[in-house]
Amino acid sequence: MPSQPPVRRILILAANPTDTSRLRLDAEVREIQEGLKRSDGRKQFEVTSRWAVRTDDLRRALLEHEPHIVHFSGHGDGEDGLTLEDGQGKAKLVNTAALTRLFKQFPSIECVLLNACYSEVQATALATLGPYVIGMNRAIGDRAAIEFAKGFYDGLGYNRTYPDAFEFGLTAIDLEGIPETATPVLKQGKPQLIKPDLAPESTKSRNFSPVFTPQPQAETQVRIFLSYKRGVEPDEPVALDIYAALSSQHQVFIDQAMVVGTPWVEAIKREIAQADVLIVLLSATSLQSEMVQQEIELAYEAANDRHGLPKIFPVRLAHTAPFPYPLNQYLDPLQWAFLETPTDTPQLITQLQSALAGNSLPIDTEIAKQKLLQRTVPISLAPPTPLAQPPAYHTPLAIPLEPPEGSMDTESEFYIERAEDTKALSALQRKGGTVTILGPRQMGKSSLLIRTITQARQQQKRVVFLDFQRLEIAALTEDDLFYRRFCEWMTVSLRLPSQVDTYWDKYKSLGNPLRCTYYVQDYLLAEVNQSIFLAMDEVDKLIAAPFRDEFFSMLRSWHNERAFEPVWKLLDLAMVTCTEPYQLIQDLNQSPFNVGTSLTLKDFNETEVAELNRRHNGVLSLADQQTLMAWVGGHPYLTRKALYEAASGNMTAADVFDAATVDQGPFGGHLRYHLFRMDDKPHLVQGMLQVIRSQTCSDEQVLRRLERAGLVRRVGRQVQPRCRLYAEYFREHLRE
């Protein structure tokens, strides 16, 4: 007799705190159990359910049952985590890092289904551990959640693989006419093979032994997403020519093909996630577009989840300057195409067709890239960049390049020094300084950090520039990996051979903070034997890391050690964050952010705007300057953007103000970027609308996220939109 397949243990965890909206969790669990009972494989599954799950319940249930499949039903809050219950039945958020650390202890888990709103963040993190993980990329309704669960477990009950069961879940939503099939997403982890005695007969007969199915070979027709800057020449005409030429053979998405009324944010995210190739047209104008940057980042993230798809084909449109940061991180290592003039478009299309067939793009070597970039011609008035540009010698590029022109250049005549600049530079004149630069997005924090870096180099200090947003998810969840990365990062920046393994073995009985401390003290500082300036940008990326308190406490100890160990006076610390320090570390007595010099950046005042206008040849009258202040409130990036458009002759001042809230206007890309980031997060949408309508925000967590994004500000007891531009645009475009 053939042996019986082993039983697969399913653990269902449900949480619906009393202070959250009610969910039909009982109906969902009942449908799962009934569906499995009816299936051919009913004897292969053992279902256990736990209700009103608290953090202790979660840990103990996993230990007790060692499940193969974990199903969570409840609420999610995106980056902030999943919602369990506390001892009083109220909501308690469990962050992504803590969940990942817990699930890492259970290698038997093959699949995790997070049937909760905005749980894609947790799904992406858990998938790095190996299992298949299903999450939701937006809010999901009760009906859709229940139908998906029914379809998914019907598939499993009849011996289908996890990817097949996922498709049955989507089909179940579709068959009920519920328009939410784009909400569930499957994150494929490392390959996992079914044990021979578990594989169903139908699977064995078709030689489908692995649960993990490799990506199929590309068919003749390729799914393409065409990214470009609309309303700009030569970008739009070239994009339309490419669309016309490739559409006959391939499935090409271009935004102009969307029917009026289509939810464009959802459409763009869905199309990029499903594309095989992203062709992105890069001109001097489009490279300043926050939406183009967002589309490249989405493609990069999707490629990490889909084994390299979509591929990115960068096309330079008469642009021979280095890519700005952070796009250089994504695009420098890739092959490029180059279009000198629009008359060369037929040749470009031929090159793209060849690349779609599996061949290389024309600029495919470092020598070819350097040759193209040597043609760069300096310009007198560079467009403002959305993000500060690190000096080229601190940014690991595929090609050693000169720093790009732009508003963040330390020698730019358009850089406005504020009082905080003087304080920061003064604090770092001496050895052993500590500076924290605080402010919301696009306030000039990173730009000021770059100026401190330039001063440090002038003082013959060795500079280490670390941008924490470049850390991979695994390094933000595993403490040992993070501290090793941190030490290796500093070592590479200082051009020293790595001794990380040696120190980790030598001090194996100590914790990671002490290993890191001894590595810096006994190796890096001793070997360099001169001052080191450690500049850390985006440190709030660690806000969800389980080891954040001990890391920031370690930095505080380095500051304190200067009083006892002279060698630590050779280390300067500079940190940039858009998160209030009390959100980054629980014990403020151990915080590195409240020692040394702490600076909070503010918007430009009228005097600073007037000075910036003078440097743009006085393009705005006094009345125009006042109108600009009324619209953007001294927002550094938007102020510079308006002045650039007027000074370059692209628009008159009147045109800038008339089109301020128009999608294709001077601020359109910036506004669409924020709308894109908020549109599928109802809690942020509701919070922003509450601020606009009543100058309050009842959810403190939402308020903090809106503040970090630079969209709102606290004024006394009120909360206000940061500027009139945001108030008018988001009042019109946000929908509850």
TrEMBL record:
GO terms for biological process: signal transduction. InterPro entries: CHAT_dom, P-loop_NTPase, TIR_dom, Toll_tir_struct_dom_sf. Signal peptide: none annotated. It holds the Pfam family CHAT. Residues 220-356 form the TIR domain. This is ATPase. It comes from Phormidium tenue NIES-30. The lineage of its organism: Bacteria, Bacillati, Cyanobacteriota, Cyanophyceae, Oscillatoriophycideae.
